[in-house]
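Hey,

Quick one before I head out. I ran the complex with adenosine-5'-diphosphate overnight. Inputs first:
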Amino acid sequence: MENKVPELFGSMVFHEGVMKERLPKSTYKTMCKVMQEGKRLDKEVADIVANAMKDWAVEKGATHFTHWFQPMTGITAEKHDSFIAPAGNGQIIMEFSGKELIQGEPDASSFPNGGLRCTFEARGYTAWDPTSFAFIKDNTLCIPTAFYSYGGQALDKKTPLLRSMEAFNKQAMRIIKLFGDTETSRVNTTVGSEQEYFLIDKDVYLKRWDLVYCGRTLFGAKPPKGQELDDHYFGAIKPRVKAFMSDLNEELWKLGILSKTEHNEVAPAQHELAPVFTTVNIACDHNQVTMELMKKVADKHGLVCLLHEKPFDGVNGSGKHNNWSISTDKGANLLEPGDSPSENTRFLLFLVALIKAVDEYQDMLRLSVASAGNDHRLGANEAPPAIVSMFVGEDLQAVLDSIESGAEYAGKDREMMKVGVHVLPRFFKDTTDRNRTSPFAFTGNKFEFRMLGSAVSIACPNFILNTIVAEELSKFADQLEVAEDFTTAANKLIRKTVIDHKRIIFNGNNYSDEWVVEAEKRGLLNLKTTVDVLPYYLSEKNITAFTKHGVLTEEEIHSRYEILMEGYVKVVHIEALTMLDLAKKSILPAVSAYVKDLAETITLKRQVSTAINCTSEEGLAVELSDLSAAFVDKIKSLEAALATAKEMDDEKAEAEYYKDTVLLAMTELRGIADKMEEEVGEKYWPFPTYGALLFSV
Ligand code: ADP
Ligand code: MG
């Protein structure tokens, strides 16, 4: 297989190489311009491109095409149309026009829209994003598109991401120009997202309705062995998992997705895949395809891939590490100190813009990763806390300290650190300590945002990151563009920003209780749940930033707020109903059956002899009967809570009620079930145990 990788790689992608080969020279040139500069495509060019795309796709076995988009559900959507058109005489031809390539019109009425589209105006449009290549999946030519309403409002995750790239480019270019750089013509943010997931056996999975309905277990006593021995992390990969990974890699490579590393994670049955980084919108498409293929390929191997943030209590959940950096079209990484004083000033300017952004928009970063599933992880000693802070590491901290104090820099070479005069030592890459507890860590030439849940699209965290940094860059540029002496002004600005925003930097252990206290003293936000953070979306500060840079309109922000709040309620509601269902139809009957058998055993034993010892059966029967009575009480409490929630019509109040009351009732119900599970004979228990799930492969 190995030898075939180079020819396999990207073989199902209509990438630049294919365009060059298959398009007339002038069309190819136009396409390059369109891709690099975001220019519009006119109809004639589109017709030529569409035809070449269709010929290529048909040769590869494709029969259909689809506008592939990323609605607010967080997963991708597609509606397939075939290339077939009647040609008379009962014959057909394969056809695909420029119009079909550029725009589609899927019925949008069933996608979440947060009140943006009244039902009478159900039309939604998809528009080709030519910066992301078309590809073939399941014999279908997939055209990456943005999805928007009749009125032009974004109905998807991709549109704000694309808009944020433009905003970022615009503001970053203003800064770049101040350095007299005339070569660079485009600045993009780059992302590599490491994806965690669980793999379990499909037969076992299908016996767990909580996993089937909710993606996470809602009941389950702790198995004798979990992750305490740390013997799974980076351990040898089992043959069945290895076969899955090889197959997955091959599928990903065909689509030009550079899946690079794979290893076992901390929890049993947990694994991770890391791709090579790329431009942010492509990274986003790639991550969506990766998640989809993980599920598909797992199925082929009789496995199920769980992408939920917390499939199992008591062992680590899954996240996604969003490695984020800034890159120019000339290949420079702007988060890497350069070889000249001027490059270092540039590095420091971008760095402090980021520090300021993270400090001023802690709420938006927390919001960007908010979901009912991720609430189970953040702050649970397995993932960063809900408090946003930044790790810069000892060496970079020393640089920032010397900038602040104006004192001698006590770094490795003990040189005087003067911004714009001295060269920064190039030590960061090797010595930045891997602080695994930080939500936002500098790792040499990029930042790793670690709060993301495993299931969510990376579009939201990245459009938010792009926008808030663009906002700080724009403020910097406003000041620096009118400064008399650029270097002096830049130095002053860097120093002031460090002083004003250093509270956001924390290099210690983010999992410790002391940090929670310290963070509060520093005035940092600690927004523990999705419901706590969502209202921040509507704050004036945030609306101003997102509208100013044309990333979201006020209307779109409101709609997103509503979709997220409603989504939270729906998720918890489904979980609660699933619990009630399992509690009443599976768990109670199982416990009763066991108690009945115990009682019969006692009766039979007594018939043999009154002297026979029945205390174990009696003890168990009494304990389980008491527990199931308490269990029924908790069922009633949960039912009552749901009934109360149903009466509420204020969405925010309802979400708060779910968070405070319904979730608590669910936890209490589970507590008793898990206790009963520990006492009930294995063959009576109605579904596979945690042990059977976690060690099923
Ligand atoms: P390791 O953590 O083993 O040192 P890396 O730091 O090289 O590995 O990469 C971790 C992830 O960060 C990978 O997905 C990688 O592609 C990504 N990454 C590396 N450099 C950048 C960059 N400049 N921009 C965005 N992501 C990057
Ligand atoms: Mg990582």
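The chain has three domains: 2-156, 164-542, 567-694.

Talk tomorrow,
K.
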